[in-house]
Design brief:
The complex is a heterodimer of chains A (about 120) and B (about 325). Chain A is mainly α and about 120 residues long. Chain A has helices at about 5-20, 20-50, 65-95, 95-100, 105-120.
């Protein structure tokens, strides 16, 4: 097995850093979610949830912790979704053709793009 | 380098649905030559290239590149060829250097060789000043030069050029021809398709004309031109019909054709000597001659002779077939 997938990954990273918007969104969006829905709404929820009794045996966590887990999952989901869409653009612009015409095995493309998606999220 | 057949195609057939893009063609290319593949739009040129470069599966018949069957050893075939695609295939957001670097890496070139080749090729295509420029900011000619440079990164044994000079200005075309010739002299076999007949004429050692998926003429461009006769003569008269009959009576006139502006005569002997005879025989009939023009047949004439005059739309899917494997 060669290391060609690292090249695909390298290209993904160049594009990631080069598109400031994408990088910015990836870093700021989760923080925004947490701030807006987490901090702003937690005080409201706090007054509502106080009326429910805590179920015995269930660990009591505060709303922000609950929110953070959700935001993390959502960020991972969306970045991966957009990461995969990059493949679609490649196909459209034709770079896919160059990759397929090379002696590189095609699973390197999947691996490289996949790795790129993982890093971005 | 030993001369031998580097590309061998036998009874190749390829269809898109019901449409037969390539219909039972056979040809071969000698190692070290520049081979031109000509044909009108939708004739099957790109399909053939796509099969040879393993972009399309080989449906029927056989094709060998460098002695390797494209059907059974596509991976090894890919290692020994370079391709410059018909349409622009560049990542708009990578720089010139990154484009070459990316290409070298996916072809698993060793680092030293890759860096040396990059430098050498950027100089060759004179893009030194644009090394760190993103490709979307380059002009059409620069992009094309970059694509050709990329095709040369790996020093392939066969370089496929699918209409490399399409849409370029004469200066850039001339320069690209020079590169291509230089590369060929270094031992790379060139497989060229083009619509520009002068290009094929100047560059190639051998020419093959394909139309409707079949090869209809092949040979050196000289021999093809000679099949059209020594000279061509264009006549405008007051009565083309009668003049055609009169011209036919001259033994050196091998063919008379009516074209939109008058008559086209193909002469089997030196035109300078035949012309007075033709004119005399027409004047004897009392037909007024309005204008006369004579010229050597060009590859353009050969092309039109074999493929006719009507304009082709070309079936929509042939020039850019969808990759089948993904």
């Amino acid at each position: 097995m060669g290391k060609e997938f690292l090249t695909i990954y390298w290209r993904e990273m160049i594009r990631f850093v080069r598109f400031r918007g994408q990088l910015f969104a990836a870093l700021v969006q989760p923080a925004l979610w947490l701030l807006l829905f987490g901090v702003a709404m937690s005080s409201n929820f706090a007054s509502d949830t106080i009326v429910f009794p805590t179920i015995p045996g269930v660990v009591d966590i505060d709303y922000l912790t609950f929110m953070a887990a959700g935001v993390m999952a959502m960020t991972a989901l969306f970045t991966c979704l957009f990461g995969g869409m990059g493949l679609l653009f490649d196909k459209n612009w034709g770079i896919m053709k160059e990759m397929l015409a090379s002696p590189m095995r095609s699973y390197h493309i999947q691996l490289g793009v996949g790795l790129g998606g993982v890093t971005k999220s | 380098m030993m001369a031998g057949k580097i590309i061998e195609v036998e009874n190749l057939e390829h269809s898109f649905g019901d449409f037969k893009a390539v219909d039972n063609i056979s040809f071969s290319v000698e190692e070290g030559e520049i081979f031109s593949f000509l044909g009108p739009n939708g004739a099957g040129k790109s399909t053939t290239i796509n099969v040879l470069t393993t972009q399309l599966a080989c449906q029927k018949g056989s094709a060998k590149v460098c002695g390797l069957d494209v059907r059974t050893r596509p991976h090894d075939v890919k290692k020994s060829i370079g391709i410059v695609f018909q349409d622009e295939v560049l990542d708009r957001d990578l720089t010139v250097r990154e484009t070459l670097e990316f290409h070298g890496r996916i072809y698993s070139m060793p680092r030293d060789q890759r860096l040396a080749r990059e430098k050498e090729l950027i100089e060759l295509v004179e893009l030194e000043e644009k090394v760190n420029e993103r490709t979307k900011n380059l002009s059409g000619g620069m992009k094309r030069r970059l694509e050709i440079a990329r095709g040369l990164m790996t020093r392939p044994r066969v370089l496929f050029l699918d209409e490399p000079t399409i849409g370029l200005d004469p200066q850039t075309r001339l320069r690209i021809w020079d590169y291509i010739k230089g590369i060929n002299e270094e031992g790379t076999t060139i497989f060229l398709t083009t619509h520009y007949m002068d290009e094929a004429d100047r560059l190639s050692d051998r020419v093959e004309i394909i139309d409707h998926g079949k090869i209809i003429a092949s040979g050196t461009s000289e021999s093809l031109k000679n099949t059209l006769g020594e000279d061509m003569m264009y006549l405008e008269t007051v009565d083309d019909e009668k003049a055609a009959a009169a011209a036919k009576s001259v033994s050196e006139v091998s063919e008379v054709k009516r074209v939109s502006s008058g008559l086209e005569l193909i002469l089997s002997a030196d035109g300078a000597k035949v012309m007075p005879k033709v004119l005399r025989s027409i004047e004897k009939e009392g037909i007024g001659i309005l204008s006369v023009k004579m010229k050597k047949p060009s590859l353009d004439d050969v092309f039109v002779h074999y493929t006719g005059r009507e304009i082709r739309d070309g079936p929509p899917e042939t020039s850019m077939p969808k990759p089948r494997r993904h």
